[in-house]
Amino acid sequence: MPERVSYRATRAGIVQIATRLSVSPSTVSRALRPETAHLVRADRRKEILDLAERLHFSPNPGARMLRKGVNASLTVVVPFDENIFFSEFYGRFLSGTLHAAAARGWDVHICTLRRQPGSDLREALQHLSLDTSGLIYLAEPLSPADVQHLSGYRRPLVLTKSVLPPGVPVKEIGVPVVGVDNLSGAQTAASLLLQLGHVRIGLLLGPSGSRDAQERKKGYLDVLDRVGARPRPEWIIEGSFSAETGRAGAAALLATADRPTALCCASDEIAFGAINAARAAGLRCPEDVSVMGFDDGPWAAACWPALTTVRQPLADVAERAVSFVVEAANHPGSSITSPSSDLSAALVIRDSTRALGSPR
Amino acid sequence: MPERVSYRATRAGIVQIATRLSVSPSTVSRALRPETAHLVRADRRKEILDLAERLHFSPNPGARMLRKGVNASLTVVVPFDENIFFSEFYGRFLSGTLHAAAARGWDVHICTLRRQPGSDLREALQHLSLDTSGLIYLAEPLSPADVQHLSGYRRPLVLTKSVLPPGVPVKEIGVPVVGVDNLSGAQTAASLLLQLGHVRIGLLLGPSGSRDAQERKKGYLDVLDRVGARPRPEWIIEGSFSAETGRAGAAALLATADRPTALCCASDEIAFGAINAARAAGLRCPEDVSVMGFDDGPWAAACWPALTTVRQPLADVAERAVSFVVEAANHPGSSITSPSSDLSAALVIRDSTRALGSPR
DNA sequence: AGAGTAAATGACAACGTTTGCAGTGCAATC
DNA sequence: GATTGCACTGCAAACGTTGTCATTTACTCT
Q1: For the domain bounded by B182-312, which CATH number is listed?
Q2: ipTM topping 0.90
Q3: Any atom of strand C under 7 A from CB of B36?
Q4: B333 near A9, Cβ under 8 Å?
Q5: Does B88 score more than 50 pLDDT?
Q6: Euclidean distance between CA atoms B227 and B145, whole angstroms
Q7: What is the pLDDT of residues A284-319, one digit of tens each?
Q8: Region B304-316: what's the mean pLDDT?
Q9: In sequence order, what DSSP letters do the residues of A37-63 get, joined into one string?
Q10: Is the CB of A305 under 7 A from strand C?
Q11: Of A61, A171, A315, the CB nearest to B131
Q12: What residues of A are in contact with residue B92 (Cβ under 8 Å)?
């Protein structure tokens, strides 16, 4: 049977406390905040704190915000998508943001942004709750004009590189951009495969509209071209950053007689799908085919075989984004050094890759 | 080279707009909000909206909050843990919360709660940002006294059943509790295995301190006991809700000659670990051993073999929690029917289970 | 043209907290 | 004993927006 609960309409405020103790609201205000607490006589302060505790007093945030002009909070804008945490990217980034913010005593808002199919992004932005001191944006891709518009809100704004369309130079955006050095990460990944003796390498890439995907593709091909190992066109497959892309792509590539001996995947999810497809085709990983991922999410070490992959330092990226927003908000008007260089992505070698032709 | 950016210290307010157009602030306020926009003459309204747009005006949230008394936002309290999104539970719940909140125009804050090893929960709660109209709590386990304290803040509060210690009756908490019917979900799961002919069943469970784990354990054993198929004690293994628990547990159980023919796991992650361990031991799933999960996260369908599992309707649970908070906040003082019954968890049959002794 | 009505606008008082300033007392100093 | 200094407290004015109420303006109808 449903029970019923109700909540007092009015909560205790600073004046209620003041009148009940017959002191002025000023005194209560001073006693309640650590910075000014020394101004109040000790016994009186104790009295006030006790009553506040008993009444579960918490200061009206609106009033405080109005008076002080700032609020220690930032908004993270994520895409409106049922399964955003399926991809580990958002979860890991968000987790990093939470930590970085908590360390500074900041509050984190999350806001979903849905771009209606035919409509303007501007319209979608209307619904953004802008009651925070800064924005970290990792939702829908943004054109330079969109960025222009967003930065017009005059709040500290940080973008993740992933939201910029491929080809737009980061420097010219005029807004801090945080991101990972996909290019050298991908180069390292491809280099390892070459070093292990693989030359017949298939590429399972992300969507062509994604900057991350493009940068990684370029990194892979840079290295492979240099040694004349560019994959034949039908071995270069693009799709979403999902296990399904890996499954379908690997299934197609591994069905032929002269199949690739290694698969270089643009995300861990794709790699997982590829490993499963290989297994379904009766091939073992890494004995029959090596698989390389990209991201190093929590599953990479927990799956089987443990995935060789490129570590995206997303927590560090988030830390950098939060740090900028907090700095900028704390020093309004003054100019802040914006983070501009990418964080490097290191190779993590585990069990899903093996030297070509090496014994079991 | 690092570039530098800066932000205007003061943002345009409603009075700036008013004076520049030589109208009163009241008119601007009315023109700016859809509900009252019809009160101002069309041409003037357009003038105002245009200028506001040009100035990137957005109303001071503090002032608005102070004036209106409410703010359409709620806080989700999650544990302070580097890898919270590794477990799919939080990601899926949060995603559901975001949707439910967005549908109502509400804003979502996220707050991490870290209980210092020896210290009181009260202390940790001090750092909670309470500037929202409601709380959805899914962090550290709460004793009834803790709940008492939390509800003293006189804000709408919803708990997930998982945070209550096993044995505490939901009814007596006096606070709305949302959750999943673990008991019947687990019963259905065990029934399926029996129905497939399995009687030698191993149980890979969650931590004994977790209510979810205890309820699921009870559900499994209820059914197995009824037909005299209670697993021998060494086949009942408890651990964290992680792949490692599944890996280690399955490795131990499957190493013996008279191994179980089916493994019933208390979470998808455990099941994934178990499948990998089976594979490492040279056993195939589902041919040699059936594996049952619990949760039906996004990976359940994407992994290989696709996992038979119990679907936790976390999005619905979140929807229910948000719905309660919003209702309670919108009708302060009045009593709201609190959700009390669990949402049912349905079996999803995929490829990781098979009838005992069935042909390949 | 004047009365009567409806539409549009302005003046003003909240909302709860913080803070500069102007007091009070009270002890210490010359 | 008058004066200075110090510790503490109260007064009152912000902060930016919204809603009530009163007032002005525009319009319709005899």
Answers
A1: 3.40.50.2300
A2: no
A3: no
A4: yes
A5: yes
A6: 40
A7: 999 999 999 999 988 898 888 999 999 999 999 999
A8: 95
A9: GGGS-HHHHHHHHHHHHHTT----HHH
A10: no
A11: A61
A12: 85
